[in-house]
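Re: the pair you flagged

First of the two:
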Amino acid sequence: MSIRVLIKDYPHRAIALATSTHALVLRHSATSTENSGNPNASSTSLGSNGTGAARCMVEFTRLEDVDLDDYRALHSVNVHGTLGLITVENNVFLVVVNGASKVATVRPGETVQRIHSVGFYCLTSTAYDTMLNDEVNPYPTDTIDDEGYEMGFGGRKEQTPMEHPCLALKKILSSGTFYYSSDFDLTRRLQDRTTDAATVSIDSLDAGFLWNSYMIQPLVDFRSRLAPKDKDALDASGILTSAIRGFALTITIPKASAPIRVQDSGMPSSMTLISRLSCKRAGTRFNSRGIDDDGNVANFVESETVYWAPSGVCFSYVQVRGSVPIFWEQQAGLLPGQQKITITRSPEATQPAFDKHFDNLELSYGTIHVVNLLSNEKQNELELSHKYRIHIRNSPLNQAGDSDREHDLVKLTEYDFHAETRGPGGYEMASMIAQWIQGSAEGFGYYLSEDAEEHVKRNEQDYIVRRTITVLQQEGIFRTNCLDCLDRTNLVQTIISKMALELFLNHKGLRASQDFWARHSSMWADNGDALSKIYAGTGALKSSFTRSGKMSLAGALADARKSATRMYINNFADKGRQNTIDMLLGRLIGQVPVHLYDPLNDFVVAELARRSAEYSETEMINILVGTFNLNGKTSGINSDLSPWLCPDVDPSQQCPEIVAVGFQEIVELSPQQIMSTDPDRREAWEEAVRNCLNKNAEKHRKDEYVMLRGGQLVGASLSVFVRSDCLKHIKNVEGALKKTGMSGMAGNKGAVAIRFEYANTSICLVTAHLAAGFSNYQERNRDYKTISHGLRFQRNRSIEDHDTVIWFGDFNYRIGLNNEKVQRLCHVGDLETLYENDQLNLQMVAGLTFPYYSEARITFPPTYKYDLNSDQYDTSEKARIPAWCDRVLRKGDNIRQIQYNDAPLRFSDHRPVYATFVVLVQRIDEKKKDELKAALYRQRREVVGDTRAAGHLGQDETDDEDLLGYDSIEPGLPPASSDRRKWWLDNGLPAKARVQPPSNDHLPNPKRPSNPFTPSPEPEWVDVRHLQSSRRPEPPPTRGSQRARTVDFNDPNPSRAQGPTARKMIAPLYPSHASQILGSDGANNTLNDLRRSGSSASTHSLPTNLPYRGSNTQPQNQPTSSPQVLRKPAPPPVPNKKPSLLLKSPSRGTSPVPPPQQYRDDPPPAKRSMAPPPNLARKPIENLIDGEDKPPLPPRTGTNGSSRSGGGRNLMDDDPEDVHNNLRDWEVLRPVR
């Protein structure tokens, strides 16, 4: 679809991408990168350098709803889509594909385009409009002087051309190594995508291979906020483009050379190769080696060979390459082969990242066979191979032990490529590797699909419909590596691809011609050259042999030239290339993505979600699920299944709307059966189940049941039945399978899933048969993980992407007790003890399997293993321990389980289990929703006006376009805030208090906590008329200073709650004097006074005689006449008793509570000093701060020297004995040196 680029410059810069039906309009918001010098302005998205994210308005609308008259079209610029937005040098650029050509057609209607030109259009400035718009001028005249002579750029400074800031990005994106498709998901292999998806859903792409994920992510986020219809329209427009990096090519196979020939078709066969380079650890040769902590490796490439025939047969085979997955580095050097390899981490520190890498491979592809081509003669490569071997041996995927290596999930073949091909046979000897990997190649299989014709009857007319049916899936993968994963690796991968194609053709009884294999080799040689240019800068070595099967002199000379070119590029050009790659992927320090917002649509979507009750209603439906391991028996097919499928439940749950039945071992799992699926048994059991359900429906006068969909994986099957009156509410029914048995190669274990939507609620039902064996609970955990991650529906929807999920089946978790004890507990009915030792319960509690799932309380005895046709547990020689193998689990906030029980059907060694649920489903009235949406749009347009991306804005543009219409949530509260507008700041100034007292006689209560949100019984205001003048609260301190603290010792009520006190600072202890201060011989030392300048935080009325803590000399209460102020006392230790208990007189050895303090209006003294306790015979310490003159001590209140009168008994007027008892352990803190 052709897309036009339209630009408007006035009054605000805007760019529109317009198709024939819709337009995507983008406009930069100037408020994002400018703070106008406001020190209080901030941004919610900051990079490491503190730069805020650029903000742009965006709008996607129908063409008739937007006025594009003010826009100018760029001459002859029709683009193929946008790769996204990127900020470079504080300017926002829209990146578009303006040149592409078709290079591959995987299947009819699935094309791949190669990007050969991109454009960068600035959203913030017009300065770059004349630079680099369409193409770089191939014949520049900027360096020609007036007389026509070449003068270069060094002549005069003003003649130096301005380079476009995106020139490096343009070069890399236009290098011919990027590809995209508007027809299908190019980031996923054929096996992982479906054929019936109408459009590419950009939010379901594999981020590991999506190279423009950083640039396109803001648009993907914007898309996620659109209404479903607009979302589909945006997908169909092709405006959003997903790009991979690597290689793609289709070679046409003439009918004479095609292995599969179709007589009646005029279309030729085709062979396609697609290589997807991972962007997770992207980089150049010597800048990107080994693995990172997330398990990503350098030069990781997924290569897929596809062969399509006109008959509808489609073959696909995938293999991967990647750097040795340990932490290692290699420095570039001028001498080839002399670059030293450094292993940077110990094996213990490497193993976690190594395990992550192989766990991801196993989840995505199944069993892994590692083919290591490193040399055994070069010391560097030998050390890497040794470490690689150790890590594979320690992998948790290989825990079966040496005796059971056949079931390892990671296999290793070491093949010294250089040593094997050094002889007279040359590179032809590389094909000998086939004998070492043939077994895995046959076990892994390949993906195969075929077109089948189905006769469908609609409106009493017969139609023939062609559907693509999956016949076989690939269940394992080869992971090949050498040092660079380029030359040797590409040659061996060509051999593996040929092996897989030969295996496919042999199964069909066909053979390929020599011309077919020559085309195959040429395609792989082109692939090797392309990948090598990306990583190393030149084409691949040994490509001459890959193409022709023999090495010529010209090929050897070409390899020597490539090696020299690589040396130059790796030493002098790769750092710049690496920096460009990091910029493209958003990895530079301080890089932040562009923030997009739509003031119109974002508001409407949020309001629709908030007011969903106006256009939707809820309904309760009932679901019954049953699981039964049949042990391969058919004897019970004519039995009465009603105890299991029609249990005695509440009448409201009889004849539920949906019934799902899962069977395991529906056929005997013989070696012949586990590799194929026979549907006859499933169909017979489905008929028996349907008859049972319909008898019960007739009995309760309900509509009959119809079969919705069934699925089978050898022995496991799932059938879903729906009451016919509910069929009108069900849509989007899909099924999927996932094998786990024999490392994913066979179907004896695995899962079958069916998903559908009931009204507007998505439901997924999964029946699973997990690994058997008493001690194999870790393998069962891994089976769950494989199924949960690997089972996919259309549009890459997983099991977890549903509102309601129910798992049921034979999970095979056992009870961790011996047989005798389990039998005894079963006999006495002690199910609690059994459940405490149940493996599934323990693994779920530990979070190792089925996270966030729930299971109802088990009230029935273990369901396995019984003697046939009896209630006796296993009496055979194997004496299986009874266990709850058959389980039902659920997840969702709209589901409630009612029943969970077994049924007395005895023709198998398992007992069937059933569970009933009540599910709350939502039904949306689309008509009401559309009406509300239209009303909200009209309402929003009145508020927003033209303040949107496609609007006509004047000079009075608001700074807060994204806040328009968002009023305060309650009257009197401020409106919403933004990066520019903050309700707690007034025009960038600090907040001012506007609170007024009730009258002039009221003041703020000083007893209230400083934090206004802290609960307090104190009133906010106090009446000064009810307070003594001496107790008037002090005015608040000046900003930035601490309140002065004073203590009133004449307070008649010292136990009253006090206001906040000044922070108490303990003087630091210098090592040379610490022992003198804290020692027990303090009676022999005295300390001189220390005078310092006054502080507003000081205390200026303290007791005059505070003894040293722990002093052996008794303090004496001696009045003094000279005024003096002491330093604050040390803070008491944190009390471990209630405060009321601490007010009592302390006993010896405990610290009493300091006397309570009150504010008063006395001004603070100009100086303060520390007085020694009277009559203490301590050894003096030299005073290093104060002089010899000491101010007189202040008079004690209430004594002869008192300066105040009145008051009652003061704390300081106690008898000497009281002072001795109360202040025995107090000590004055003094700074020492």
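Second of the two:
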Amino acid sequence: MRWPPSEGSVSPELFLPSSTRLPLRPTMTSSPSTSTSDQGRRNAPLTKEAPRFLNKEINKKALRNLVAWAYKHHGTAATASMADELKDLGFHYATQAAVSISVEDLRIPVQKVRLLEEAEQQITDTEERYRLGEITEVERHTKVIDTWTETNERLVEEVKKNFNDNDPLNSVWMMANSGARGNMSQVRQLVGMRGLMANPQGEIIDLPIRTNFREGLTVTEYVISSYGARKGLVDTALRTADSGYLTRRLVDVAQDVIVREDDCGTTRGIPIQADEKGRFQAKLVGRLAAEPVVAANGDVLVERDGEIDKPITALIEAAGVRTVLVRSPLTCEAARSVCRKCYGWALAHNQLVDLGEAVGIIAAQSIGEPGTQLTMRTFHTGGVSTAETGVVRSLLEGVAEFGPKARVRQHRTPHGVEAQIAETDFTLAVIPSGKGKVQKVEVSTGSILFVANGQPMPADTVLAQISAGTSVKKSVEKGTKDVICDLAGQVRYEDVIQPRQVTDRQGNITLKAQRLGRMWVLAGDVYNLPPNAQPVVAGNKPVTTGDVLAESRLVSEHGGVVRLRESAGDSREVQIVTASLTLKDCKLVHESTHSGETWHLEGKDNSRYVVRTHPGSKIGTGEVIAELADDRFRTQTGGMVKYAPGLSIKKARSAKNGYEVSKGGTLLWIPTETHEINKDISLLMIEDGQWIEAGTEVVKDIFSQIAGIVTVTQKNDILREIIVRSGTLHLVADSKVLGRYADEGKLHNPGDELAPGLVTEAMVYVEAVDTPEGGALLLRPVEEYTIPDHAHLPELATIKQNGGPSLGLKATQRLTYKDGEMIKSVEGVELLRTQLILETIDTTPQMTVDVEVVPDKRAKTIERLQLVILETLLVRRDTLSDASHGSTHTKLQVEDGVAVKSGDVVATTQILCKENGLVQLPDPIDGEPVRRLIVERAHDTKDVDCGSAAIAATVGQRLVDGELLAEGISADCCGQVEAINGNTITIRLGRPYMVSPDSVLHVRDGELVQRGDALALLVFERQKTGDIVQGLPRIEELLEARRPRESAVLCRRSGTVQIKQVEDEDSVTVSVIESDDAQTEYPISHGRNAMVNDGQQVSAGEMLTDGPINPHELLECYFEDLRSRKPSMEAAQEAISKLQFRMVQEVQNVYKSQGVTIDDKHIEVIVRQMTSKVRIEDAGDTTLLPGELIELRQVEQVNQAMAITGGAPAEFTPVLLGITKASLNTDSFISAASFQETTRVLTEAAIEGKSDWLRGLKENVIIGRLIPAGTGFGGFEEELRSEAGPHPDILDEESGGYRRVANLRPDYTVEMPAAAAVASPAVLDDPSEDELDAVRSKRGIEATASSFAAFARPSVDEGLEEELIPDPAAVEGLLEEGLLSDD
């Protein structure tokens, strides 16, 4: 089949069976903007001639192009019809021969075995180099990972080749290759190898999965594989949710961007650059030129506002134009929307966008939808994969020759290969040794050369790795990796390392290697000595199995009596009683009751103490040991406490344990019975102020225990308290007497006259009370308790060591309540407690006191209470030897019951030798004990007989495999030459470890190490992986304009860089000398890398250090720099456009890295919304508010008005808002409230009296009106055209949605004729004209502008279909509530 050829396009041909014809009819739809030639082309009659036969396979991409072509040239209907026919064709043949799939279809390439063998060989070589100490641990790891990555890629090529050559119609291959299902990465895992996996921390495991799913995985591989699988699952789940939320926020921020006008008339645009090859690809297609595009010869290729399509792009490229200024939504000056010419083609039909198109929503969906295809984040590769790129090999055998300009220096590659790095650009030539042409290689600066000048080499030798020639410093970060020791022995540095001591800010000293060199560990049996063990052998002495190497002693600190306890586990406890205290006068009695066990002390004078600390417990100083059981100070009921003069207490911080008596005296007690009740008042059986007898029922089931006057306390008809005060009542008529006791009661001694004829006989407490008969005095009895000056202390027996800690007891009396305190109770209370309290002298905080029961020395049946301070020593059992310890033998030097003095040895532990050998002690360090020693055994050395050969090695020399010992004899092991006896060389075996410069050395020269100890921490630089900031989280970070942690330092003003190194520290200071010779210093924090060189020219906003860029700071830098040279308005526009360009690039980079293509204009629409606002810094003479966020164009209008009137303009700073913030800051409060923080948004809108002009889609949908977009746009458009005034969107308006010029009209509200009165029996009253006038004047609305369509009631003249019949029941209800007038 065949289409008529169209201008500038190639007809694609399709191989279809003769029976199939795709009827393509010309389409009748055409946009008003379509050019006449286009119109003619579209409606050209279809040709009658038979289609040309073309045999060509059509895959997914070709199908896409075919459909796009058909759409462009023949319109919608023809394309739909063609697609239908294509589907039928596909189904027709699929029914005859469908694609089946079986296990046999998974063909594994034969080359796999060879590739794996090659990789294994490379890995073995690398491991060998590492074993010989030629490369560091980091270089080994990097090389292993790169080897497997490269193998995997080569295997993929083999898989493709295998399918293509041997089985091109294989179902798996066919589907993957045509793009129907699956991709190469999946096919690779099915028939190639599964490859490298990351662990849960995100570091690559250097053990790859060599098998594929067809062969099946081993158990280890399966476990490693499941890490990746789990990550994939979680990733997908999170991604869906994240992506959905992102789309919602995007829709919200852009929903009111609708194409509302044809041309905004702007002269601004954005420049679009060609790539290195001068190509624009699709970047220009669908855009309109902002200025004429002129070729070098002066031909105008495109006029201003000319549409650029593919053919024109080709013309521009051919003319060699490198930059084209095009119109863009970013520079569109249409208020709140985008005009057609700035937007360009609608991507759906490749013609100028229609008026009323909701381009904001389209942009939001275009950015949000591919979000699910982005990964959440790729993985950290433990050290970035540095798989070689740009590798050049020699094509022939010959000699390398560097050009005359060549300048090279030594360089070590990340794989530990010694090479050279080019410092200039030059040509490397390979001069053939036989016949042939000279091979020339252009070497750029920074390329790595693997051959030296004049070096002969065979064909297929790697010559160089050519760098891309970018002089930009790569962003690097510091990585670290531990070097772990493989064998026990002694550390020796090579001199080349030159360790230096570095002191950090905390004063810790670390050793750092200054040069690349080896650190050796020489083999031997290392013994870890227990703390306080001392070697008992001298260095370099032979020892045999069972010899004592070291001995540790267990020494008593204070001395005392020894007690040997039964053993627990692998140790035995020795206790030494340092101090003890026995209550020898008191007998300890034990009782068991249902509430638990109690212990009592019974004294000779019948005193009885309750023991508060039970035997077997541990206590500290100040704790109560026992309390005197004494009923002398117990009352019958509650009451009030008064201290008589003479009784005094010690001041205490807290009264938790009572008040300690310092001087004895008399305690007075006034009994009061208080019933605390929480019951209804109806249960009360007496009255307030009534006199009752003992045994009276006051409340149901509660009886008074004493006679007296009742006081009832109640709250909200709930009884709280009933107080009964006992005593004698005396009626007194004299008000003066009553007045004396009105506020509070008073104590009176016997014989005092209270009132005429009323004399007390005993001590009383007098209070005034009201009775039904009148005022009276209540004389309350007072009880007296005598408190002695000192409490009784039982007799004690103490034992202590000289200079050691000791124990004592003191007896204290504590009053429970303070002077004047009221105790609410019915039962009695304890007024005074006598306590025995522990006192310790000369103890440390760690010492505890043990409470014990001991039999009396004379009468064994009687038990006494004893308090002891114990020194507990653990004596270890004998142990058998293990890898790091010798066997031990422990001997006790004391017996049970023996007294020892301070410093006496209690036990000794000996460390015994495991094998015969030569013992050596480590190099002594001042002030540090010996913690390890080493025995060099027979198999730690190796003797090599050199026969008659001349010996080349020297004593002390360190060798690796393959180095020469004597003529014709090379070493077959690594180690140090220990001795040369005649013709026998003794080598002490060892293992070299390569350390790189700046590595932190954990061990000193001569130190002893065990297997598994960390020897050093290698510090290396790796390029910062883009992985942390990839995928969806990165898109979110950009669109939400988040401030990154530890962002890069940016240059504020352009100038020349000057770098100063701070002495004695690693840090540097970067200063920029600006054009006016001002100098700005930028301190660079520790761990940051400067990204600029000394003397380099930098411009504002450029990065001085590595790290993520803070977009807010970037905008600030641009604006500050430009404002110093240009007017504020221009500076703001330019700063914003610079930032916008950066933002669009950043977002595009993330999508491109994942293979997703999005048109720039979608991102531009969103970024425009994020950068449309400015913050008012100083309002000047305008009505704006400082701190207010307002659109830039509004400020521009206000400032222009100020320029006319001569007022001070407003000062402002451009701001960048994240999409959430921008959504909440929109003019429409309805839209903002429907998005987030509904209550806050609506409250603020109400407080500020905002108006919503219903410009966007959401607000209109919520209100229930036709949306001003799509087909709904037409009505508004006609209305706008017929209106006399200017376009409502271009009206001058003040900031905010609420402070408006009085005669403003809202957008798109259709003016209606005034509503006629409806004659209806009962409807809600219309407001009178007076009321309307009042509202208008209050709101500042003109009378002509107040009847909006939205609020007008339809009139009868408008031909209502339904008659308005009020619901009688509803009318009645409204009349009752007074909401309707009767007429």
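Residues 60-96 form the longest helix (37 residues).

-B.
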